[in-house]
Specification:
The protein has 12 helices and 10 strands. The chain is α/β, with parallel strands linked by helices. It has one domain (11-315): Aldolase class I (TIM Barrel, Alpha-Beta Barrel). An 8-stranded parallel sheet has the order 3-10-9-8-7-6-5-4. The chain has a two-stranded antiparallel ribbon with strand order 1-2. It is globular, with a radius of gyration of 20 Å. It binds flavin mononucleotide. Flavin mononucleotide (FMN) is lined by residues 25-28, 55, 57, 77, 105, 192, 214, 216-217, 219, 247-250, 269-271. Its cofactor is FMN. Belongs to the FMN-dependent alpha-hydroxy acid dehydrogenase family. InterPro entries: Aldolase_TIM (IPR013785), Alpha-hydoxy_acid_DH_FMN (IPR012133), FMN-dep_DH (IPR000262), FMN_HAD (IPR037396), FMN_hydac_DH_AS (IPR008259).
């Protein structure tokens, strides 16, 4: 008999109010799902007031996506290049294009072993698809020309390999190097891909403004622990004061509600929107987002929850050990 007739999906992140806890996860190479690529999905997210996270592996440029997103909320995901000049250039472009939050992916310093893709030789990034952020970068272009005495467009396979070597370099940056990013980015910086309480504590200690608990959708390390399993202990380790976001495996409003009840401050949605986008273009993506929001809202009503300002962990039954 709790009055849930007035519900709000609002959340506050980094001092800013967001109309819902949903964020579009960074998904690389969106042109393989729809010819409009990142631009189409960014446009949908902008229309629905959902923050859009642009992947470094975008098939449109930073500037094109900013223009499609118009006055929408947009965050930039960094696959941290091994070349500092190029990193600085990417950050400068993202800031100039009004991307407000930097998401640094820490779980993928090299690509995972994917037998299905390897069997079929399916690696779009090595064929100039999903490399557009690099290919449009003035510093990358200049260095490529200096090294190979030709333009990127004259040898796409070589330029692709050079770009992929930079962003999936297999050389993790040490924690202390967050100071370098902070020097070149004046907004919040979020660590994506945290799966262990000790890493979460370290991320906060070195100065990340938020973390995303994620196992990359289980797409990189085979057999990685489920992210939801780790969420409570990571929240306990981090304590209050640092936003903890969550992704990997959320498919329904009830799924989202469980993550929020456990204590996540917001959630990222990856494949559901992409499936909608691939199946039915912008209308399909919009349908998925609207459905998730409606489902979340209805699930709140079912659970007796009117908002996310306070903890609802007691609404979740612990898993019997
Ligand atoms: C096709 C595909 C491409 C992805 N590309 C990126 C990427 O470029 N950068 C990144 O940080 N995460 C990437 N991810 C991971 C997502 O951001 C997210 O962590 C993951 O999909 C979990 O959410 P989901 O279960 O809702 O899909 C990708 C995921 C998919 C499915």
């Amino acid at each position: 008999m709790v009055n849930t007739s007035k519900r709000t999906l609002d959340v506050t992140l980094f001092g800013q109010k967001y109309f819902s806890p949903l964020i579009q996860a960074p998904i690389g190479v969106q042109s393989i799902f729809n010819a409009e690529g990142e631009k189409g999905l960014a446009e949908v997210c902008s229309r629905l007031s959902i923050p859009y996270v642009l992947s470094t592996a975008g098939s449109n440029t930073i500037e094109e996506v900013a223009s499609a997103s118009n006055d929408g909320l947009r965050w930039f995901q960094l696959y941290w290049p091994s070349d500092d000049d190029i990193t600085i250039s990417l950050l400068r472009r993202a800031r100039q294009s009004k991307f407000s939050v930097l998401v640094v992916t820490l779980d993928t310093w090299s690509a995972g072993w994917r037998p299905l893709d390897l069997d079929q030789g399916y690696l779009p990034l090595l064929n100039g698809i999903g490399t557009q952020i690099g290919f449009s970068d003035p510093v990358f272009r200049q260095k490529f020309k200096q090294m190979h005495k030709k333009e990127v467009e004259q040898d796409i396979p070589l330029a692709s390999r050079e770009w992929v070597k930079l962003i999936l370099s297999d050389s993790p940056q040490p924690w202390e190097r967050l100071s370098f990013l902070k020097k070149h980015w004046d907004g919040p910086i979020v660590a994506k891909g945290i799966q262990h309480p000790e890493d979460a504590k370290k991320a906060v200690q070195v100065g990340f403004d938020g973390i995303i608990v994620s196992n990359h959708g289980g797409r990189q390390l085979d057999g990685a622990v489920g992210s939801l399993t780790m969420l409570p202990s990571i929240l306990d380790a981090v304590g209050t004061g640092t936003p903890v976001l969550f992704d990997s495996g959320l498919r329904t409003g009830a799924d989202i509600l469980k993550a929020l009840c456990l204590g996540a401050h917001a959630v990222l949605i990856g494949r559901p929107t992409i499936y909608g986008y691939a199946a039915a273009g912008k209308d399909g993506a919009e349908e998925v987002i609207m459905g998730l929001l409606a489902d979340l809202d209805r699930s709140m009503s079912m659970t007796g929850i009117t908002g996310f300002g306070e903890s609802h962990r007691s609404a979740i039954m612990p898993r019997p050990s």
